[in-house]
């Protein structure tokens, strides 16, 4: 099954989800449990943990 990348609209977390190609429902955010997630059409390089480590250094990702 393919791995899709999703972005949470609430906490801006980006996470990967393995889903069936026929399953188009949005998964809940693993970080804040929000269901306001959108599938990323292009690959992204940042995952939740990376975003957090960047935030902890005090610099905003650009
Ligand atoms: Zn979230």
Description:
With 62 residues, the chain is of the alpha+beta class. 15% of the residues lie in helices and 24% in strands. The protein has a 3-stranded antiparallel sheet, with no helix packed on it. The model has no long low-confidence stretch (mean pLDDT 80). The chain is built from 1 helix and 3 strands; from the N terminus they run E-E-E-H. The protein has one domain.
Rg estimate, integer Å = 12 Å
> What is the mean predicted local confidence, pLDDT?
80
Helical proportion, percent range: 10-25%
Quickly count the helices.
1
Silhouette: globular
Per DSSP E runs of 2 or more residues, the count of β-strands stands at: 3
Name the bound molecules: zinc ion
Distance from first to last alpha carbon: 31 Å
Element order: H for helix, E for strand: EEEH
- Unreliable stretches (pLDDT < 50, length at least 5) are none
The largest sheet has its strands arranged as 2-1-3
Q: How many strands, what sense, and barrel or not for the largest sheet?
A: 3 strands, antiparallel
Oligomeric state, counting identical vs distinct chains: single chain
Name the beta content range: 15-25%
Query: Which structural class do the helices and strands define?
Result: alpha+beta
The total number of structural domains is: 1
Brief descriptors of the model:
62 residues, 1 helix, binds zinc ion, 3 strands, 3-stranded antiparallel sheet, alpha+beta
Q: Concise description?
A:
The protein is built from 1 helix and 3 strands; from the N terminus they run βββα.
